[in-house]
């Protein structure tokens, strides 16, 4: 009898003896808890998360899923709660984190995460996911989190009926935008719906204005130090944004991003610039009067971000988390999540047929557009810099002081160590 055969016979005997019956069953089926931390509470995103939970639960019914959400768009409140927990040695089993600088600079460099390269290889994700995305999930030769989607930040959402009634087309340039805006205002409609209560939404819209003023390469250079923040194109972007703000609803400071969406839905507002979670939100409200286009001057540029989840060190039950990550990265998981979320899959092999019209459009744009990183959503810059940028633009909404804002933006780049 060979040693291997002998060992396996002994093992089988042990298995039978303990009433498990088979060798496979000797590996305990996942049980216990799985706590997933995110800020997905709005319509569309909550359903999307639940859809993945549904798959997980069907596969691992003995695991109790704890849905730890902290409401607030773009992680406004969640990120602070997460920091407290991580510093206090109480990590959630897995948490939402944006691919790019937010993941690497906030959590990987300081050794809070476990590498997942082996998982990516075993699951074939190094070929099923785009190189550019894998690159921003990587640090020192390892991959550190599992992306569930790709969101597009620069989308102009508009009410189709309002535009049809006014015989207008969505504006391709800012000259057209302001012309349309005057015509809509004359009809008593808010041209530019905005909700900037949480402090990030104006900075989000301003990314699209920067892209229009600088082009894809110029915009990218802002984050790598090759485009000066002190230059005339940034001034021009701020001036455009100032003009746009004059067409916004007066209650913008009291509304969150979905509050601006209510303007579009209620036929009170014509346009808004928001990420494509708005697509998931509109859909969750059974609203289908919306159209979409690249914001003015954004044709051919995809301002991208990706939500991902990783494996923090010292979690209670590592196997439950690994199982979660496997579901999240799978085609089944991504095809359940993304149609509801408004985003497209991080994987390149999802079937367009499970998606709605907006997402089929986005899937095509993703393959043809120049891809640039969103700063508000963690891809372009480390959190300190992203916060300085966000705060400078939030202040601009009330101050409308172009010179002071441009100075603050330039200083933020210096403080980040990227500009001299
Ligand atoms: C982004 C996030 C999206 C969506 C959005 C609104 O930062 O990546 O998934 O949740 O915030 O909260």
From TrEMBL:
GO cellular component terms, A-Z: cell envelope
Primary localization class, coarse: other
SUPFAM superfamilies listed in its UniProt record: Periplasmic binding protein-like II
Signal peptide positions on this chain: 1-28
UniProt keyword annotations, A-Z: Signal, Transport
InterPro entries, per the entry: Bact_solute-bd_prot1, SBP, TAT_signal
TM annotation in the entry: none
Compartments, record wording: Cell envelope
Family: Belongs to the bacterial solute-binding protein 1 family.
Function recorded in the entry: Part of a binding-protein-dependent transport system for a sugar.
Protein name: Probable sugar-binding periplasmic protein
Taxonomic lineage of the native organism: Bacteria, Bacillati, Candidatus Sysuimicrobiota, Candidatus Sysuimicrobiia, Candidatus Sysuimicrobiales
